[in-house]
Amino acid sequence: MATRHLIIGGGTAGMNAMRAIREEEGERSEITLVSAEKPYSRMVLPYYLDRSIAESHWTLDQCRNLIAQTKAGSHVVMVGAGFISFTILNSILALGAKLTIVEIAPRILPRMIDATGADLTARWLKQHGVDVRAGVQLTKIEDARGRKRLSFKTGPDILADVVIMATGIKTNLDWLKGSGITINRGVVVDSHLRTNEPNVYAAGDIAEGLDRISGHSEIHAIEPTAQEHGRVVGSNMAGRDVSYHGSVLMNIVEVCHLDIASFGAWDDAKAEAVSGLKPDRPAYRKLLFTGNRLTGAIILGPSKDIWTTNDVGMLKGLVQSGVSLARFKDHLRRNPFDVKPVFIASNTTSALLPETVLGRPSKAPAGTPVAV
Ligand SMILES: Cc1cc2nc3c(=O)[nH]c(=O)nc-3n(C[C@H](O)[C@H](O)[C@H](O)COP(=O)(O)OP(=O)(O)OC[C@H]3O[C@@H](n4cnc5c(N)ncnc54)[C@H](O)[C@@H]3O)c2cc1C
Question: How does pLDDT run across 23-34, given as a tens digit for each residue?
Fold first, then answer.
């Protein structure tokens, strides 16, 4: 009888697990997918929202509702100024809406960038017509003649046509209660992404996998981590013995043509921090060193600035590779913007090129002309 696999959830982790099973198995197995929704990646929802893709918020149904409610000139209020709300910000503006963002923390993007970066971003958004109110606590939302009235602990009320709650993710764990699977903030997994139950694996937003920089188990809730988890889990389900070496936390978002990114332990208070600021551009870099390794970074600058775009990739590479920057630290301390020569001279590309998730080069999915 063929091996039977059950995948629960048709998101990024589940789809990558299925693909890896098919790539790795010796004999064709039977795969059953059980999912609350049709398979798709939530990362594409912002593009569905601004109608740059046809069909693929938090779920597709919520996205459809939002499109139906948002007319040109509508006042949309987003509650929460975190990564996810920023991923849909451009789409809301593209629908022709007037946008206000409210945030309980004293600054926007509190779990992605530091206060200096947040300040630059808030000013940029205001210049682009987005009203930003940080440090305000929402206390009530009530109907007001077909509109919504938002009240706050301090400050004036806001009248909105559409309210979007984007106050953070909560791992969907309730359905696992009583299953015997060990749960902490997410599902606890070992070095092969196995749970404590034999033959049961966990991957993606639900799994507390290894963070490559901190060495601790963490929920990343980002697409690249879900993809890597899915690949490792699928290979192990197909009978291979693949260890998971951890993923790098990264958040990259563009709002009104301003690129904002952070990598690794960008908020590590114990790290040696070096920063550079060009407020008029605006451009900002923060580099965090643990010994001679770059273990965290923040980068912010206009998208049209090619150096910004290149530096995003190079900083991620420096953090991911963990190469020694002993010879270059003084240079970066003097000029944190001059990343390119350091990236080249430190042979970071050579360190990264042999890296693979599954211990072998990627294979192109059937019919795809390039390996992905
Ligand atoms: C609007 C939005 C924008 C985003 N943008 C980015 C981005 O730019 N970059 C980035 O890196 N990440 C982004 N993310 C995060 C990224 O989409 C997630 O990290 C990724 O989708 C996680 O994949 P997953 O397979 O673990 O979970 P999901 O994609 O959430 O898939 C899980 C699936 O399981 C189903 N399910 C849940 N419980 C059950 C159950 N009990 N039984 C059956 N089915 C169940 C769900 O309905 C869902 O279809 C974004 C997320 C959102 C919502």
Answer: 999 999 999 999
